[in-house]
Amino acid sequence: MPDQAEPRQNLPPPEFQGKPSLLHALGEGWAGVAVWWLGRIDRAGLPARLRTLVRRRESWLVLLAVLVGVFAGLMVLLLRSVAYWLQSTLFDLPPDQRISGLGGLPVDAMLIPAAGGVLLGLIGLALRRRKARYVDLVEANALHGGKLSMVDSLIITGQTIISNGFGASVGLEAAYTQMGGVAASKLGDMLQLRRGDMRKLVGCGAAGAIAAAFGAPLTGAFYAFELIIGTYTIATLAPVMAASIAAVLVTALFGHGEPIVTIPEVITIGVPQVLLIILSGLVTGAIGILLMRLVGSVEQAFRTFKIPTWARPAVGGLAVGALGLITPAVLSAGHGALEKAFAAPPLPVVLAISIVFLKVLASAISLGAGFRGGLFFASLFLGAILGQVLYWVALWINPGLFPEPSIPMLVGMAGLAAAIVGGPLTMAFLALETSGSLPLTVAVLVAAVASSMLVRETFGYSFTTWRFHLRGETIRSAHDVGWMRNLTVGRMMRRDVKSVSEEMTLKEFRRLYPLGAATRVIGLRDDGRYAGMIDVADAYADEALEDGAMVGSILRHTDVMLHPALGAVDAEALFEKHNADALVVVSDLAERKVIGTLTESHLLRRYSNELERARADLAQ
């Protein structure tokens, strides 16, 4: 008797099984609706569809950039509020007062930066087991295709907030850009974007952060082009500008994002002014180099005196607090001091030079001691004070050269920031959006270019890339060189290795490998270590036909080996140096255990393909 058929069940298709229906979700309330909606997204494969749309349509990348810009703007507002709340609480500031704008500090306030240093030291001890090397945006885009860690970024941001909030002579721009960049990176990870699109999106996060911080969308955009993406292309213009504008609009909704200073004065730039501006650019460039080298010297001094890493921020904070007793202008990034400098008459020359010296020293000690933060705004403040010195020089030469001190102050800001941060066009657009004056923008660009040229010719690094250099890296910009790091010998080698003993006779070798059976064979010692490479054609040469001749007599490149971690450029240098068509790959240069071979032709072909791919991204 046949089995009785089971009652027919109205089951949904397999892909819908286990997912709540909309009617059921409505019956369960809003939580049920949310689950139903997420289930629909999962079934629809939304990330995959979005990824396809982003790759095919530039407008979708622009939409993602807007979302990133909105988040970056909100993060700037949040982080700035937290840092200012810390400063107000710790230093008992009056409402709307910045710490660097104070007229003086009580003696006990000098301990506040040291307290922040103790807190950072304790955090450092707690994080010692992680053994992580925290990656910022420039390194992420240069080496890692825009990949950033959320945990590491939160740690960097927290340390920056503590450093700035407790009065260390550093700015918040590093925290702003880090959070904007990591949001973009995680969004790109979720959508599995291509390397080029990921780098653009991370640049959008940085652009939005800087634009929101200064209320200047063009400044934010060119910060991303020059410092984070490393180049300007038509394909990057729309998303980066969209992110910058979105971030500025978000901050404007909350009453923030105003330019740091407004200069309505219309000026005329002639030859005398240009000569003074070039001189200003050279001076600010030299001071920028001095500051960068001083940071390294402070770090070396801590190592020389064998001060533990965890104790260095406390010692450095005590020194910064002592400098703050002389003038509070050296504390924090310098927002209050900069506003005060533009609102008040220019300082006497000796006092201005003294403040520059103390601020340079405070910034170098802060960073050298281990406080987190950047020098973007600190360089603007230092440049403004140097601009006041330029104003007195111009006044001594001819009172009509500069109608007001704010003009050379803006020139000095651009010159020093271009030297330290490394973005001359960024500074030029900051001047344009601040003043609305095209002649002044040209003057600022002249100073920024002169400063940048001096730094590049005599020093070769901006502050960010100098820090990489101190760490042993050779990154000079955010240009994508990570693909070259990823193109290693281990990724390109062939593992199907043919090998024989070096003591085998040539007669036996010819029997095993007739002409055409192989091109190259590896010779091994008795213990299995690499002995040399055999060109099969050599085994059939006339001089090799002697009876009793061994394989060891025709070995080539006996002491030339590659290892898997070697990069393509270094490997090609070895091919060129030893005039080799192929080389063996060993697991370790000491053990000489053979794991593969690599030919020069294959290396050059792979390198050329990757180079063309990188050029295609630039040509979009």
In short:
62% of the residues lie in helices and 4% in strands. By secondary structure, the chain is mainly α.
List its traits.
single chain, 620 residues, mainly alpha, three-stranded mixed β-sheet, 25 helices
pLDDT under 50 segments (min length 5)? 1-28, 30-44
Distance between the termini: 72 Å
Can you count the beta strands? 6
Secondary structural class: mainly alpha
Which outline best applies? Answer: elongated
Q: What proportion of the residues is helical, as a percent range? A: 55-70%
* Mean pLDDT across every amino acid position: 84
Major β-sheet profile: 3 strands, mixed
Strand percent estimate = under 5%
Read across the widest sheet, the strand sequence of neighbours is 1-2-3
How many separate helices?
25
Radius of gyration: 31 Å
